[in-house]
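Database export, one record per block. Field names are fixed; values are copied verbatim from the stored entry.
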Amino acid sequence: MSTWKVFGLRVRVVRLKLGDESIELVEYLTPKGRPVPVDSRSNDLWFQHVAIIVSDMDKAYQWLRQNKVEHVSSAPQRLPDWNKNAGGIRAFYFKDPDEHPLEILQFPPGKGAEKWHRASDRLFLGIDHTAIAVTDSEASLHFYRDLLGMQVVGESDNYGTEQEHLNNVFGAHLRITALRSATGPGIEMLEYLAPRDGRPFPADEHANDLVHRHTILITANADQAARFLLGKRANFVSSGVVIDSHSQLGFHKAFLVRDPDGHALQLSEP
């Protein structure tokens, strides 16, 4: 598949829906890629998680514990009230069977989208955003805001013992910038102001390596988007725009490109 620039591949793709949002699981039957580094930390630049909103943090955490998930956070954390933009949010990091980090999150009244506060008998409600570690917020803003057209919808400065226990990074101090498009989950940029020892994306990372994740953005015109990003010297993974005439992979046209830190994005034309 030249979209992902892995040759001779055979994949199984499963799309899972939760509420209004969905994720795709891609299993490379051949060729197999490398596992996630066992010593990965939340400030390494390949870090990316999916934030799942829950209606009751205590019940959700107990459910995860019953199913013996691997902790990243020591336990659910409530961010302190002095933090105006994040105070009252409860969150917990854990890992899936392939060591990909995930987050469950509960918004207090007055924070988060209105739909997360509607009465529901469901425990897991949907996906609010994906969060990525970045080196330089301004460089990433140029890419996501100025080139891709996303809008900044929130910022916060997070530090303290709660943040350390959430991320499992001693001395964690983060600049967080939340971006959104008109619809769909957002992208949250996590710049570690401290510690600054997060490792860069592996230079030889391929789409079949388990460290690989990509975020799918919808575009009305993949050819035009590709020409624009090529003109801006974006780092392409795909050799060009790929056409899937049968739409077996959920798109008509698509290409894969990287942000300034190496996170992959698939721009898809339905």
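Remark 1: The radius of gyration is 18 Å.
Remark 2: The first strand starts at residue 10 and ends at 18.
End of record.
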